[in-house]
Write a structure and sequence with these properties.
Layout lengths: L5 H29 L9 E3 L5 E3 L1 H10 L7 H28 L2 H23 L10 H16 L1 H24 L4 H26 L12 H8 L13
Antiparallel strand pairs: 1-2
Helix pairs in contact: 2-4, 2-7, 3-4, 3-5, 3-6, 4-7, 5-6, 6-7
Length: 239
């Protein structure tokens, strides 16, 4: 068996870090060559107030690249409904901003517009009509929340929290009822946005000494959401 002399030992000691570095470089190159999962964090722009903008370029590429599988009727209706629900949020927040001139409404309205565009990518991919708000449930909700938001600034903020509260529950249900990766990706993007926007509305309400009580979320889940910071990192589970 070969036994290196002292000079050989010193030589091996010196080149060992170089060998390790070379292996690391080779492994890194292999990972890059094979490709890696997209950094989901780059799908969002989240500011210090929690306004969550979905970046259309990266999301569009992912939706396009993910497999296009036949959808069942529930999945089709879910996409159409979500487009309408997000559009409703844009309309109401814009209306509240015109009435009260509070920047949070303008900022979240702009964010919600990117959410509409994200769901519209799914509608386009699967050749679904993107209707105006026609769902009777959403039309009725629009009327109720619009009237509520006209009464006072605090009521408008509460109406905003209600919209996000409802959106979270609806998206959670829709995610459970699909196995399509592209649909789950978009819905999870929207779900993060809704949680962040709910945090923003609840925080703003507290500056007016108003506590928001959840109307759809359980108290446990609501408290978990508002007790945690705005979400900026990758989506959990790569979703």
């Amino acid at each position: 068996m070969f036994t290196p002399d002292a000079k050989g030992v010193n030589y091996m000691t010196k080149i060992k870090p170089l060998i390790s570095l070379s292996i690391l470089v080779l492994l890194s190159s292999a990972v890059l060559a094979m490709g890696r999962p997209p950094d989901v964090e780059m799908l969002f722009d989240v500011n210090e107030d929690g306004m969550t903008i979905v970046r259309q370029g990266p999301v569009s590429r992912l939706v396009k690249d993910l497999p296009k599988e036949p959808l069942n009727q529930e999945e089709k209706e879910g996409i159409i409904y979500t487009v309408q629900e997000e559009a409703l949020a844009v309309v109401l927040y814009s209306k509240f901003y015109d009435k009260w001139k509070l920047p949070i409404f303008k900022k979240i309205s702009d964010s919600e517009q990117t959410h509409v565009q994200a769901v519209a990518l799914l509608a386009k991919k699967y050749d679904l009509d993107k209707p105006l708000v026609s769902d009777k449930k959403l039309i009725a909700l629009n009327k109720i929340l619009s009237s509520q938001g006209e009464r006072s600034l605090a009521e408008a903020l509460k109406a905003g929290a209600v919209i996000e509260d409802i959106s979270i529950v609806d998206l959670q249900k829709l995610i459970k009822h699909t196995n399509q990766d592209d649909i789950k990706l978009v819905y999870n993007c929207l779900l993060r946005g809704s949680r962040n926007h709910l945090r923003a509305f609840v925080k703003k309400l507290k500056t007016y000494d108003v506590e928001y009580a959840p109307e759809n979320l359980s108290n446990k889940e609501f408290n978990r959401i508002i007790s945690t910071p705005h979400e900026r990192g990758p989506l959990k589970g790569g979703k």
